[in-house]
Each structure stands twice: as structure tokens, then as C-alpha cells.
């Protein structure tokens, strides 16, 4: 049975992928309709996947609580907060004031603070960088970062720094384009491997 | 006590709890983080229910099932994803995952090819178009630098090598030099990115500090 | 009458006694039988009453058969046709009819594997898998001579271990066990009251014979011989079925490897004995051939002289291979007669010790089935090879002539001591013929060959009924009286059919046949002991048996094991009985006092027909012949013990073979290099387990202090700036081209056109994104009053719409300084779009289908005048740009659609190429651009400006800290590296 599922899942993935990919280039009916239908289904399934992921999170922490593992209390806090938020949100909708309260009072402060901690960490890491590693790449990396920061600050004060910033950005854009092309190539290769069935991350082995 | 004040108090408290991480991992930090994960997950569930499942799946099937009979397929596939929660029958979710991966791969391939590779390659070529440029040399230099940066950066990720007589892999000398310069471009790019990350984090810290100060001032003022 | 001093014990005996009343040594020359003397028939009819009933029947049958004139088979008959001691296998013969049924499964499964038996090429009968298993898998089918030439070093370790003497404790246990078994047989020892348990009926008659001949109880010594009892099956081994027998064999064989080694040294004297006694027989070929197996077994090769192939050669070839390499084989073969009088003959000790287990209980059929009945009465001393009794006996008998030494030697050997006693008993009936000393040594052997070789293998047949176990054709005399073995009286009917005319007494046949069996039986001694208390389990798994059980089946209980083919059995017991032995029984009963005729019928030696047990001693004599030991004149004369009077019996050389198998040490032999490597490995492992010095707490402190310092500086300085709400830091009025393009794009938008605002950032960067996008949205709303549609690609981002609009003062009322944008009218939150690139692709293709909401405000994506992408993630931003650009390429209506990027500072550099390529109209990257844009936008909404001072200070602070800290780290790093390099 699993073998059959594996084969058919691969067939589904490849056929659906090819249909969607053909939709980029071929606009002959009913191919666009089929592609839109597949994409619609995929969006729904993707939403359900997020839902399932949340359910999995609940199950994991429930198991943690049941087995009284370390940190079960925090798990209970997570499950309780998740349960009440989800239930309330499902019932009253995410636009409910209490739901906004949860975002403004919990989500944004915590996430924002975590991001703020990153500023401290980055400075600390920059300081420690030359202690750990001193090579041309590290020096250039740190020097460019410092130059960028200096230019940003000095732009209002020293207008020439804007030209320096543009000059520096010229190199960074070149590198960024190379990175983007490289990322695109990697994405292309990976996607084609999936479409050819070489990679089956959906469990088709 | 209005809801905004509660929001401010809770946000202030949680901000302090998370900042306590500077003193190391502690229960206060964990409390804030676990609460954040629970609330954000619950909110995400509510959002998905209200913005995805209800309008796109449940409501159409309940309102006009005959017309939306095909929605049974995603419905079944969505339920099959629940099998992923149980290892013994997780294989049942393979079809849904296959649809997700296959369509996602096709979308990524099409977008990467048509949205990045071709446009960026074309842009690298167009950069040498000096027509209408007020400073052709500057534009030419910029085009050369960007093209060099693009090529050298790509070359830096070229790991093809031949086997040396001693058995160690060794890249071609020319490729090695090109890759070295490519790494310089990458270092520059990452330096800029690092600065950008710091700037983003710095703004986040400013925002948090501003919220704290505002809350304190609000408390003082009230 | 004057007293006669016993030549053996030196004690005085009344003159009317023929044998010493103390040591049973014959006191008169007439009462002594000498080797070479023509055996005279002795009428032992007076002893009949004391014989067991079954023996009397046998004897009567033998007499009747002789009277019928049935002649024994020709001496030139192939060995396979010999009729050898059928009673040995009487139990098997009785199973002839149902052998196939009795063959256990494990044996059947073994058969196909062991079919190709190379050790018995000349055997007409199908090879016994049972034996082939040894010869093929463990014993190289090398020629016997080649094996005989193998040096001692090649002796397997297990053989070397075999030479170790058996521990007395084990003997005692075994003795007790066998005694118990014997008792269970229900047959009391008739003649030896001192050892009733040991001497069962099967052998008691022999003892009675001796007792009658010697009229003394000198042979009480053998009672202590536990070894003879080894063959006695335990009580648990009394199943009557053949399967039971096989189980017993299985059990035995399963532990045959672990059988304790047998002492060799004790019988070392026997080698010299053979040197002196059997040397004349050395030229004979048949014995040499027969001894090949012993050579191979013992590992100590005997340089057997090449000789013409005898019928017996092939019969024993399997034993060559057996002993050559079969480890589980019985250990006794490891001690065959060695060259140069080494203690190789000690294997005979093992024979004496191990063969005894084969000896069955008296007359109990079950016991006989289980045990090898071939062994005669336990005349042998204790398993420690105390053959003093035999020496004494020899002393008493050899007083007259040394030619009797061979015979005495044979009998004095642990295995053949019964023969010694037989000789003693028969010696009282010597015939007149006195061959020369040399001839005397061998004449009896001639007789043996003449009488025992012809018999067909009567028991070769009954072993199996399957193809492989199918016995050879039945003997010629099947119609004859069953030849009942004294040890298997109840199962001798088939055998008796095959050899009714065999004049060889059963006991003698069994005795002679037992010789090769005994050694291997010793290996199972321990197993017997261990399993003695276990009931014979018919369902014993074959896997637990292994090849060893086969050995046992071969050597210890051939008559019981249906796995044995006729061929194998024939090879096992391919011994030819001398005439004087085979014919003596009827003669003895008829002509008492007649001396045994040692000379063969044709008056010449027939070494080819020597029994295998004699051949087993051939190597010694062969070596003696080669080494030039001509006679026994130079040898010392034994003065005590059963060998008293014999010359050259005890070797000069210390007992114990210099060729004894090398003892392999179990200690690890490691070279210095290996030991050095091991030490290095040990050192490495020790280093891994050694606790490494923990980083000093100061390091942690310095790191924490540094982290706290950084955080403190940021908090204090930035907090102070925010608290002071300072705006003294200038904002550059210069807009980068990408930012200027955004402003231009906004101004180019049609009024009140729908604009899609994608919220693609997380709440963590909401502050930055709100500050950066605020001026743009404010400009857009103020200038164009578009219908904003907010769509988020992150679940939590959908909650940021209201916040964003609030921070930008868009959704606030005009009274509050806002733009009075109302949800549902001027803007709408489309919610969350899942699926990443797929969702974007679908939404771009059919927005109304993917966002089934009236808030969509459009039916086609192209209706959106502009798409403002607010993103903090380069990947998601790239997906939007890619899909939008792809849609533009496919739908010309989207060509005019403006894409504006509002990015976080962390995502801007990677999305900048899209702006450079024209895929995006413009981009506002981070607060730097946002502050400028806000400044250009008239400082509306002012959020960026609020942050700008703190932002600038924070950048300065970061630059300062990074520079100072970097220099400090560089210095400390260099110092640390120098320290490390200096330490190294």
C-alpha cells in the first residue's frame, strides 16, 4: 500500500508541477483553468498545513505535559495561551479587539524585543570577530559594515558621504545580483529535481 | 482600565522579561517566549480559519456544494494532512504534500526563471547601454563593476575541481583567482547586509525603548 | 608341594596353583601364553554355567555354526565384506528394517552435505554423510601418508590439549555415573564382586573367563578403571528406539569437543613395547596403511612405510581425514603412536579412558543401544592409565619369553587390556607350536588376519536404510544364527544373520572394533557426564549437536546410530581377528589345554590383515625399524607389574612425547610495535576522558560584562534621546534614485485607484516598517486617496494593518490629525495569503478566486494601480517580485502596474537588484531612506523623525563600540595567538 501511495504521490507531484509550470508559458484552455484549480487547492492545503502544524505543536506540548517532562509548565502555558487565543479568534475573528490586544500586547512587544536584543548581539559579535578570525574576508566584511554605517550617519552631515555610499552600494549590488542569480539557479535546480521526481520531499522516497 | 492600557502594561512587562535574556536564559524570558508562541500560534490559527479555510473551503461547500464539488478534493487532502500527526498513518498525507511540493516547485521554477534569472541577466546586459547617460564612463564603470560582481560572486560558488596528483581536490587557478575576488564582493555585500540588519535591529530597539518610555510617561502622566 | 614364587609380585603361592593368587600372574610357563605361541583351544565348557545366559547362547550358536561347516569369508575379501564383530552393531542391525524411520531429521539433513566423502573412495557403499561431514568440512582429504608426515607442530591445539591427563575428579564422577548406569541395567556383575557396578554382564563373562583361568582376583584393579565405564550409557540414555540412541549420540557429540584430553604419558611405555614387539611386522604394508588414520589423527605423523594397498586401507582412510583436522573429533586420535618412541602411544591411554563410555551396561537392551558395546570388561586400570596390573600380568607371563610382549602390550594398553586378560586366559591353553620370537610376535597377528579379515562387514549393512545409509549387501550368512554380541544381546539378530559362521567371539570382535572407537569416545566424556542426569531427549535439536555428535555416533555408539552407513561402520571396525581369537572360542570349549595357534594357516605373516588396533601400533615399530632399534636385548626388563619380565616395554626415554603437540598459549602474543600502538591508543582514549580545563569564570564575566555594557549603553543613550525627544540630528534631504522613483511612482498613480499593499513583514520589525512605510502611505493617501487593500503573507502580519495605519495616522480621524481612512471603505484587510510563491501566483492570476471577499475591490489583479510591497524578508520579497514580474510578462495589462518596495534595512540590499533591473519602480530601504522620504514628505507622519536621532546615535555608538572593541579584540587575539604559539 505504501508503495502504491509512494508511486502515486510522485505522479501527483510531477503532474501537478508540470501543469502549473506549463501555465507560465502556455495559455491554452483548459490549461490555465487547471493550473488555477491546482493552485487554489494548493493554497487551501497550505492553509490546512499551517493548521495541522499548530495542532502538532499542541500535541507535542501536551505529551510534554503528560509525561511531566522538563519545562512542562512552560508547555502548559503555551497550550493554554494557544488554546484560548485560537478558540477566541475562531469564534470572534482575528479582528476582534481582544485579538488585537494579543497582538499589540504580546506578539509585537516580544518579537520586537527579541529583535532589539539582536542589536546588542551584533555589536558584541562584531567586537569579537577580529579576536576569533582575522582574514581578508573578515576585515573587508567588518570594514564595509563600518563604512556603511558611517556613511549613513554622515550623509546628513557630509553630503559627499552619499556618493561614497552609492559607490559602496555599487559593489554590494553587484554581489547581491550574483547572489540573487545564484539563489535563482539553486531554486531552479531544486524545483526541476522535484518535477523530475529526483527529489521527493513529500514522502515518495 | 481600557484595553490600551492593558496592552501597554502587558507589552511593557513582556518587553522587560525578554530583555532579561541579557542576563542569561531565565524563567522570565521563557515565560515571555512561551506565551508569545502560544498567542501567536493561536492567532495564526484564527487567521487561517477565518481567512483561508472558511472562505475558501468550508463556506463554498456549505453554501453551494454542487458547484464547488471539486473542493472535496482539497478537503480530503487537508484532512489527510492530519494523518501526519500519527506516524503510523503519516503516509496518508503524502498526496497532499505531493500537491504542495509539486505546485510549489513549479511556481518557484517559473518565478526564478522568469522573475530573476532572465530579468537580472538582462539587467546586467542593459547596464552597458550608455544611451542617454549623462556620464557614460561612470555608468560604464558601474555596469562593469556590477557585472564583475555578479560573475565573480557566482564564480565564488563554483566548487568544481579536479583531483590533484596528491589526491586533494584543486580548483583551476583562474577559477581560484576569480573566486577570490568573488569572495570580496560577497564580503562587501554581506557587510552591507550586516549593517542593514543592525540598523533594523537598532530601530527595533528604539521602538521598544520608545514604547517603554511612552508607557512610563503615560503612567507618570496618568 | 613347594611354594612357587610369583614372578610378578614375588609372593609365594602354593604349588598347585597355576596362577598367582595375589596377582593372577601365571606361575607356570604352561599357564602363560606367549606371543607367537600357537594358541591352544581351551575347553572352557566348565565355565559355561557362570557365563551369562546370552553369552552361553552365543557360544552355543557359534559352535553350531562351526559344526555346520560354514567357512569364514576369504581373507582376501574386500574389507567391506568383512564380518567384524557384528554384535557391536547388533543394535543397529536390528533396526535395519526401520532405519529410515529412525534416522533423525538432523541426520537426514546432514547427509546431502556430507555425501562426497573423499576419505572413502574405494568404499562401494554410499558415503556416510555422518562421516563425510568430518572429512569434508574439517579434515582435508589428504592422503594418510602425507598426514603421517606432518610435523608435530601441525597438531591442532585441541589435540595438544588432549594430551593432558584427565582430572581424577572427572574420572570419579564418571565412574560413579557409569556405575549407576550399570546398576540400572539390572545386571549384576557376575564374576567380580569387588566391582559389580563396573563389570556388567557384557564383560563379566570375560572376567569370568579370566577368573576361571587364573582363579584369582588379581584383576580387581580394573574395577577402578572408570574409563571403561565411560562407554556405559547413562540411565537417561536408555531409550529403546533408535532415535533415542541417536539422541544420545547427539548429546554426546555435541560436547565431544569439550571432552577432556586423555593422558598420553601413561601409555608411553606401550610405544617402546611396540617398538620391540611389533618391529618385525613393520615391513607389512597393511598395518601401515591402516595406521595412516592414526597418523593423521595424532598429528604426529608416523612414517609409515609404503605398502601395497590393502583392503583395509580405504576403510580407515576416513579416519585419516578425521583425525587430521576435525577438531570435534575425539581427542584420542591426537595421540597415535609417534615416531621414535615418543609418547604418542599415550593416545591409547585416552582410548582406555574414553572408549569405556562406549561400553554399554550389561544386558539391558536400552543401555546397549545407547552405549557402544564393543568394549570388553573394564580390565583397564583407572583412567590415569595405571597399568600396573598389566605390567604385573606381563611380568608373570613374560617371564618365559619376550615374544609374548606384543600381545601383552596390546592387552596392557588401556584399550586392550582385556586382550591381555584374554591372553592370560588363553595362555593357559597354549599349543605346542612355539614360533620364533619374531614370528611369535606376529604369528598371532597372522591368525588375526586370517580369521578376522575374511568376515564380511555384517554390521556395515544395518546402519541405514536410506540411500546414503543403505547398508551394503547383507553378509553371506544371513540365514545363520544371529551373532549376538555380548553387549547387545537383544539386538543381535540381524547381525547374527550376517555372520552366523563368524567364529570370532563377539567379545573379541567388539573389543577389536572398539579400538578406533575408543579414542573419540573420550572426547564426549565430559558431555556424557554433563548429560548423564538428563533424560534422553528425542527432540534434541540438531543445531545443538553440531558435527561433534557425529563423531560420537561414529566412535562411541556405532551400533546404535542409524546414521552410520555400512561403509563407515566397516571402516570403523575394519579389524581382522586372528584365527586364534576368532576360532578359539569353539575350540576352547572343545579342546582345553590346546595352545593357541599363532602361526597363520599358511605359515607366513599376513601383515595386511592385521587388525587395526594392532596397526595402530605400527608406527612405533616402523620407526623402530627405521631407527635401527633391532631388538629388545638392550632394553630393560620390567620387574614389577603386569609387564614384569617383559623387556623393552618401558622406554628409556621419559614417558611423554617430545613430539607432544605443542601447547599453544592463550596469552596474547603482541609485538613491541603492537604494544606501542595499543599504548598510544590507550593514551588517546585516556586523553579523551580527561576533563578539559573549563574556561575561567573571568572569561564568562568579561563576556557578560561586555554584553551588559553594550546593552546598557544602548538603553541609556537611546533611552535618553527618546525620552528627550530630541531632533537635533539632521536628516539628509537627498533622496537616492530608488527612493525618488518611489515618489515619482506615487505621483504617477491615478487618484482613488485601488492599490495593493502587501504586508510581508513580521511584528518584530513592525516599528521599522511602520516608520519607513509611513511617509509613503501618507503621501499616497494624501495625494491619491487610493483604495488600499492590505494583504499579508504572514499569519500575524494581518494584525499589523490597523497598527500600520494608526502609526501613519491614516485611519485616524481628521480631528486627531489623521486622514480619516475607514476600514471597508477606504481600505480593506484581505487577510492572509498562504502558500508562498504559489499563493502569490494564484492571487496574481485570479485575485477574486483566492480572496473571495468583497473587500478585494477588484476582479483582476491588473486593476490594482500599484503594488506596495512592505517586506522585511528578502526571500518573500523576491517571491513577490518574481511572480509579479512573471505576471507582467504574461499579462500586458499589468505592464503599467507599479511595484514599489518598502523594505527593512536588512532586506533592502538583496532586493536592490530588482530595482536596478526595473522590475520594481523604486524602493525605500530602511529608516535611512524612510527618514529622507519623510523629510521630503514634509516630515509626515513623523515616526521616522522621532527615531532618527536615536537611530543616528545608535549607529555612532555601534561604530564606536565595534571599532574600539575590534581593536581590543584584535590585540588580545594577537596576544592570545602569540601565547598559544609560544606554548606550542
Give a written overview of the molecule.
The complex is a heterotrimer of chains A (205), B (222) and C (984). Chain A is 84% helix and 0% strand. Chain A has 205 residues and is an all-alpha fold. The radius of gyration of chain A is 25 Å and the shape is extended. The model of chain A has no long low-confidence stretch (mean pLDDT 86). Chain B is mainly α. Among the domains of chain B are: 1-63, no CATH class; 137-222, no CATH class. In chain B, 76% of the residues lie in helices and 2% in strands. Chain B has helices at 3-19, 27-63, 72-82, 94-126, 136-156, 173-221; strands spanning 162-163, 169-170. In chain B, strands 1-2 form a two-stranded antiparallel sheet. In chain C, α5 crosses α25 (547-555), α8 (168-185) packs across α24 and α9 packs across α20. The longest helix of chain C is centred in the last third of the chain and has 41 residues, at 943-983. About 53% of the residues of chain C have low confidence. Classes of the chains: A mainly alpha (205), B mainly alpha (222), C mainly alpha (984). Chains in contact: A-B, A-C, B-C. The interface between A and B is large, with 129 and 122 residues.
Annotate the secondary structure layout.
The complex is a heterotrimer of chains A (205), B (222) and C (984).
Chain A: H1 2-25, H2 31-66, H3 72-92, H4 97-132, H5 136-154, H6 160-195
Chain B: H1 3-19, H2 27-63, H3 72-82, H4 94-126, H5 136-156, E1 162-163, E2 169-170, H6 173-221
Antiparallel strand pairs in B: 1-2
Chain C: E1 4-5, E2 12-13, E3 39-40, H1 53-67, H2 90-93, H3 99-102, H4 105-114, H5 129-137, H6 144-148, H7 157-162, H8 168-185, H9 201-214, H10 226-229, H11 242-254, H12 268-278, H13 285-298, H14 311-315, H15 317-325, H16 346-354, H17 365-370, H18 388-397, H19 405-412, H20 417-427, H21 437-452, H22 493-498, H23 506-523, H24 525-531, H25 547-555, H26 566-572, H27 579-582, H28 584-590, H29 612-615, H30 618-627, H31 672-689, H32 697-724, H33 737-748, E4 754-760, H34 766-784, E5 787-792, H35 801-807, E6 827-832, H36 837-845, H37 847-850, E7 866-871, H38 874-890, E8 898-903, H39 908-916, E9 922-925, H40 926-936, H41 943-983
Parallel strand pairs in C: 4-5, 4-7, 5-6, 7-8, 8-9
Antiparallel strand pairs in C: 1-2
Amino acid at each position: 500500500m505504501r508503495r502504491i501511495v509512494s508511486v502515486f504521490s510522485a505522479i501527483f507531484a510531477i503532474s501537478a508541477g508540470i501543469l502549473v509550470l506549463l501555465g507560465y508559458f502556455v495559455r491554452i484552455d483548459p490549461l490555465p483553468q487547471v493550473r488555477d484549480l491546482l493552485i487554489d487547492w494548493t493554497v487551501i492545503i497550505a492553509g490546512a498545513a499551517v493548521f495541522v502544524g499548530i495542532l502538532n505543536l499542541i500535541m507535542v506540548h501536551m505529551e510534554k505535559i503528560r509525561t511531566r517532562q522538563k519545562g512542562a509548565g512552560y508547555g502548559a502555558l503555551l497550550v493554554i495561551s494557544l488554546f484560548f487565543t485560537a478558540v477566541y479568534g475562531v469564534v470572534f475573528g482575528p479582528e476582534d479587539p481582544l485579538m488585537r490586544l494579543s497582538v499589540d500586547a504580546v506578539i509585537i512587544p516580544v518579537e520586537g524585543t527579541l529583535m532589539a536584543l539582536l542589536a546588542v548581539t551584533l555589536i558584541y559579535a562584531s567586537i569579537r570577530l577580529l579576536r576569533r578570525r582575522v582574514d581578508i574576508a573578515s576585515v573587508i566584511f567588518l570594514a564595509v559594515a563600518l563604512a556603511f554605517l558611517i556613511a549613513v550617519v554622515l550623509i546628513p552631515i557630509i553630503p559627499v558621504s552619499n556618493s561614497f555610499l552609492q559607490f559602496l552600494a555599487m559593489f554590494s549590488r553587484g554581489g547581491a545580483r550574483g547572489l540573487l542569480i545564484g539563489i535563482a539557479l539553486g531554486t531552479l535546480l531544486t524545483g526541476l529535481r522535484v518535477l523530475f521526481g529526483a527529489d521527493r520531499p513529500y514522502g515518495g522516497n | 482600565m481600557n484595553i490600551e492600557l492593558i496592552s501597554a502594561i502587558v507589552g511593557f512587562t513582556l518587553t522587560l522579561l525578554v530583555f532579561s535574556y541579557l542576563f542569561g536564559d531565565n524563567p522570565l524570558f521563557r515565560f515571555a517566549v512561551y506565551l508569545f508562541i502560544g498567542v501567536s500560534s493561536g492567532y495564526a490559527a484564527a487567521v487561517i480559519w477565518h481567512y483561508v479555510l472558511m472562505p475558501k473551503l468550508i463556506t463554498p461547500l456549505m453554501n453551494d456544494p454542487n458547484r464547488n464539488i471539486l473542493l472535496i478534493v482539497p478537503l480530503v487532502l487537508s484532512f489527510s494532512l492530519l494523518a501526519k500527526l500519527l506516524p503510523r498513518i503519516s503516509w496518508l498525507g503524502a498526496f497532499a504534500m505531493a500537491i504542495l511540493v509539486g505546485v510549489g516547485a513549479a511556481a518557484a521554477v517559473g518565478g526564478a526563471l522568469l522573475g530573476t534569472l532572465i530579468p537580472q541577466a538582462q539587467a546586467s546586459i542593459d547596464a552597458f547601454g550608455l544611451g542617454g547617460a549623462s556620464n557614460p564612463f561612470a555608468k560604464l564603470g558601474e555596469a562593469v563593476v556590477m557585472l564583475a560582481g555578479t560573475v565573480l560572486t557566482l564564480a565564488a560558488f563554483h566548487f568544481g575541481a579536479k583531483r590533484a596528483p596528491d589526491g586533494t581536490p584543486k580548483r583551476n587557478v583562474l577559477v581560484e583567482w576569480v573566486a577570490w575576488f568573488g569572495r570580496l564582493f560577497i564580503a562587501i555585500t554581506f557587510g552591507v547586509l550586516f549593517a542593514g540588519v543592525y540598523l533594523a535591529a537598532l530601530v527595533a530597539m528604539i521602538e521598544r525603548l520608545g514604547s517603554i518610555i511612552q508607557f512610563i510617561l503615560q503612567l507618570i502622566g496618568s | 608341594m613347594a611354594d612357587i614364587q610369583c614372578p610378578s609380585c614375588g609372593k609365594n603361592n602354593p604349588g598347585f596353583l597355576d596362577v598367582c593368587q595375589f596377582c593372577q600372574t601365571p606361575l607356570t610357563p604352561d599357564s602363560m601364553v606367549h606371543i607367537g605361541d600357537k594358541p591352544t583351544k581351551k575347553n572352557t565348557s566348565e565355565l559355561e554355567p557362570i557365563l551369562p545366559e546370552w553369552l552361553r547362547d552365543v557360544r552355543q550358536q557359534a559352535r553350531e555354526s562351526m559344526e555346520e561347516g560354514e567357512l569364514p569369508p576369504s581373507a582376501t575379501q574386500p574389507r567391506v565384506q568383512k564380518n567384524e564383530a557384528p554384535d557391536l552393531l547388533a543394535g543397529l542391525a536390528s533396526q535395519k528394517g526401520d532405519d529410515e524411520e529412525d534416522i533423525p531429521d538432523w541426520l537426514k539433513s546432514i547427509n546431502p552435505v556430507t555425501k562426497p566423502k573423499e576419505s572413502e573412495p574405494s568404499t562401494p557403499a554410499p558415503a556416510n554423510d555422518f562421516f563425510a561431514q568430518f572429512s569434508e568440512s574439517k579434515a582435508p582429504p589428504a592422503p594418510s601418508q602425507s598426514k603421517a608426515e606432518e610435523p608435530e607442530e601441525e597438531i591442532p591445539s585441541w589435540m595438544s590439549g588432549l594430551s593432558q591427563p584427565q582430572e581424577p575428579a572427572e574420572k570419579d564422577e564418571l565412574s560413579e555415573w557409569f556405575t549407576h548406569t550399570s546398576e540400572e541395567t539390572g545386571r549384576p556383575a557376575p564374576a567380580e564382586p569387588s566391582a559389580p557396578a563396573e563389570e556388567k554382564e557384557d564383560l563379566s563373562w570375560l572376567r569370568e573367563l579370566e577368573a576361571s583361568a587364573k582363579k584369582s582376583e588379581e584383576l580387581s584393579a580394573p574395577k577402578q578403571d572408570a574409563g571403561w565405564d565411560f562407554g556405559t550409557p547413562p540411565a537417561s540414555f536408555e531409550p529403546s528406539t533408535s532415535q533415542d540412541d541417536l539422541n544420545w549420540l547427539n548429546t554426546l557429540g555435541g560436547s565431544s569437543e569439550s571432552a577432556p584430553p586423555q593422558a598420553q604419558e601413561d601409555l608411553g611405555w606401550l610405544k617402546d613395547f611396540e617398538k620391540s614387539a611389533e618391529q618385525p611386522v613393520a615391513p607389512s604394508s597393511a598395518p601401515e596403511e591402516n595406521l595412516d588414520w592414526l597418523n593423521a589423527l595424532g598429528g604426529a605423523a608416523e612414517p609409515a612405510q609404503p605398502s601395497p594397498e590393502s583392503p583395509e586401507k580405504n576403510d580407515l582412510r576416513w579416519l585419516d581425514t578425521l583425525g587430521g583436522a576435525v577438531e570435534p573429533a575425539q581427542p584420542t586420535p591426537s595421540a597415535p603412536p609417534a615416531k621414535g618412541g615418543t609418547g604418542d602411544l599415550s593416545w591409547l591411554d585416552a582410548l582406555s579412558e574414553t572408549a569405556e563410555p562406549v561400553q554399554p551396561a550389561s544386558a539391558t537392551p536400552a543401555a546397549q543401544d545407547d552405549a557402544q558395546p564393543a568394549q570388553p570388561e573394564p580390565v583397564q586400570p583407572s583412567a590415569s592409565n595405571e597399568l600396573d596390573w598389566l605390567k604385573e600380568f606381563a611380568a608373570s607371563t613374560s617371564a618365559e619369553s619376550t615374544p609374548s610382549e606384543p600381545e601383552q602390550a596390546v592387552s596392557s594398553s588401556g584399550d586392550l587390556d582385556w586382550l591381555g586378560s584374554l591372553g592370560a586366559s588363553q595362555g593357559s591353553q597354549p599349543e605346542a607350536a612355539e614360533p620364533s620370537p619374531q614370528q611369535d610376535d606376529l604369528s598371532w597377528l597372522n591368525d588375526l588376519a586370517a580369521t578376522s579379515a575374511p568376515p564380511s562387514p555384517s554390521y556395515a549393512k544395518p546402519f541405514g536404510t536410506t540411500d546414503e545409509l543403505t547398508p551394503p549387501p547383507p553378509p553371506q550368512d544371513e540365514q545363520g544364527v544371529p551373532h549376538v554380541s555380548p553387549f547387545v544381546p537383544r539386538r543381535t539378530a540381524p547381525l547374527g544373520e550376517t555372520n552366523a559362521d563368524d567364529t570370532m567371539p563377539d567379545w573379541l570382535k567388539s573389543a577389536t572394533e572398539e579400538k578406533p572407537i575408543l579414542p573419540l569416545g573420550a572426547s564426549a566424556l565430559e558431555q556424557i557426564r554433563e548429560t548423564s542426569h538428563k533424560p534422553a531427549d528425542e527432540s534434541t535439536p540438531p543445531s545443538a549437536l553440531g558435527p561433534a555428535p557425529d563423531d560420537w555416533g561414529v566412535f562411541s555408539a556405532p551400533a546404535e546410530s542409524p546414521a552410520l552407513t555400512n561403509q563407515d561402520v566397516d571402516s570403523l571396525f575394519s579389524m581382522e581377528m586372528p584365527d586364534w581369537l576368532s576360532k578359539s572360542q569353539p575350540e576352547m570349549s572343545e579342546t582345553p589345554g590346546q595352545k593357541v595357534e599363532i602361526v597363520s594357516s599358511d605359515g607366513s605373516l599376513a601383515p595386511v590383515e592385521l587388525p587395526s588396533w594392532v596397526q595402530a601400533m605400527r608406527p612405533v615399530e616402523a620407526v623402530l625399524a627405521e631407527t635401527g632399534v633391532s631388538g629388545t636385548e638392550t632394553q630393560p626388563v620390567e620387574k614389577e607389574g603386569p609387564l614384569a619380565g617383559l623387556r623393552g616395554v618401558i622406554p628409556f626415554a621419559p614417558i611423554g612425547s617430545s613430539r607432544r603437540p605443542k601447547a599453544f598459549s592463550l596469552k596474547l602474543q603482541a609485538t613491541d610495535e603492537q604494544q606501542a600502538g595499543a599504548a598510544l591508543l590507550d593514551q588517546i582514549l585516556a586523553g579523551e576522558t580527561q576533563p578539559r580545563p573549563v574556561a575561567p569564570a573571568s572569561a564568562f564575566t568579561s563576556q557578560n560584562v561586555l554584553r551588559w555594557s553594550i546593552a546598557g549603553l544602548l538603553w541609556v543613550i537611546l533611552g535618553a534621546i527618546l525620552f528627550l525627544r530630541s531632533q537635533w540630528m539632521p536628516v539628509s534631504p537627498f533622496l537616492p534614485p530608488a527612493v525618488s522613483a518611489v515618489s515619482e511612482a506615487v505621483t504617477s498613480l491615478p487618484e482613488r485607484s485601488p492599490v495593493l499593499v502587501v504586508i510581508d513583514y513580521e511584528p518584530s520589525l513592525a516599528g521599522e516598517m511602520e516608520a519607513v512605510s509611513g511617509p509613503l502611505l501618507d503621501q499616497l493617501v494624501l495625494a491619491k486617496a487610493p483604495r488600499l487593500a492590505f494583504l499579508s503573507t504572514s499569519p500575524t502580519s494581518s494584525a499589523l494593518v490597523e497598527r500600520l495605519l494608526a502609526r501613519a495616522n491614516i485611519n485616524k480621524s481628521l480631528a486627531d490629525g489623521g486622514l480619516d481612512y475607514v476600514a471597508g471603505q477606504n481600505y480593506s484587510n484581505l487577510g492572509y495569503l498562504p502558500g508562498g510563491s504559489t499563493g502569490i501566483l494564484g492571487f496574481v492570476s485570479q485575485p477574486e478566486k483566492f480572496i473571495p471577499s468583497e473587500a478585494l475591490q477588484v476582479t483582476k489583479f491588473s486593476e490594482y494601480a500599484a503594488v506596495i510591497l512592505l517586506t522585511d524578508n528578502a526571500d518573500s520579497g523576491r517571491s513577490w517580485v518574481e511572480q509579479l514580474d512573471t505576471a507582467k510578462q504574461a499579462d500586458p495589462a499589468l505592464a503599467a502596474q507599479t511595484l514599489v518596495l518598502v523594505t527593512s534595512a536588512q532586506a533592502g540590499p538583496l532586493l536592490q537588484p530588482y530595482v536596478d533591473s526595473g522590475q520594481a519602480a523604486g524602493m525605500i530601504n530602511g529608516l535611512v531612506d524612510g527618514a529622507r522620504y519623510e523629510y521630503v514628505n514634509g516630515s509626515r507622519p513623523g515616526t521616522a523623525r522621532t527615531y532618527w536621532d536615536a537611530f543616528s546615535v545608535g549607529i555612532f555608538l555601534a561604530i564606536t563600540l565595534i571599532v574600539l572593541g575590534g581593536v581590543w579584540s584584535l590585540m588580545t587575539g594577537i596576544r592570545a595567538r602569540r601565547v598559544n604559539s609560544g606554548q606550542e
